[in-house]
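---------- Forwarded message ----------

FYI, see the NitT/TauT family transport system ATP-binding protein record below. Original note from H. follows.
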Amino acid sequence: MHGASILIEHLDIDVPGRKIVADINLSITAGEFICLLGPSGCGKSTILNAIAGFIDVIGRLEVGGKKVSGPGPDRGVVFQSTEALFPWLTVEENVEYGLRLKGVPKSDRRRTADRFLRLVGLSHAAKQFPSQLSGGMRQRVQIARVLANEPQVVLMDEPFGALDAQTREVLQREVQRIWNATRTTFVFVTHDISEAVLLADRVVTMTAGPAAGIKSITPVALAHPRDLTDSECVQLQRDLRNTIANEVDRAMGNETAGERAA
């Protein structure tokens, strides 16, 4: 597996009557781990969906030097919901699903499923059904299912947001280990500042919406595994927290001013 570069230039995304994001410019290196961070409603997931090819955009959006014109096998998405698996299929059948659609022979599908279930530490659960697994285990199956298709870009939309703190911490370390093993390009949406500092090569902080843009891009030049209690990590978290707090205050001030004007 290998990653692909992502190029975004002057990207706008509109819905009827409203601009979601405006003039987004971002260049992501192949194999980089990027976190999109920001307050609720700032367009993080919208940008992720644009990279996935789920929505139309205005501007330049390329993956691996090719224009994004819709979903493709070069990109895989891990959703937030732990219910995204097919409940009538076993774990290994879920992981094999995309390969089956491609016409990959059954023996090859099984080998690939076993490889990625081992990578996420779930080879022992191959014959179980999603209903027999915890939420954290189901998310690991989702990750294995995406990786089994060998995408060049993995897109993760707050994948651990619905999980308890202990499970979330385990899966954060798991994702970091998988990224180190595959060097696939990861774009990870989160509103959790600590999570972003723990995982990312760079943290892209968004302004508050509407017509959200990029507020700042913060390199995290720290070796893995990271300890969030280290002084450098603490300072990064403090800086990012202040950036987001100031942005939220600005947005709330604008909203209040608008209400007064009305």
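H. also flagged this: DSSP finds seven helices and ten strands in the chain.
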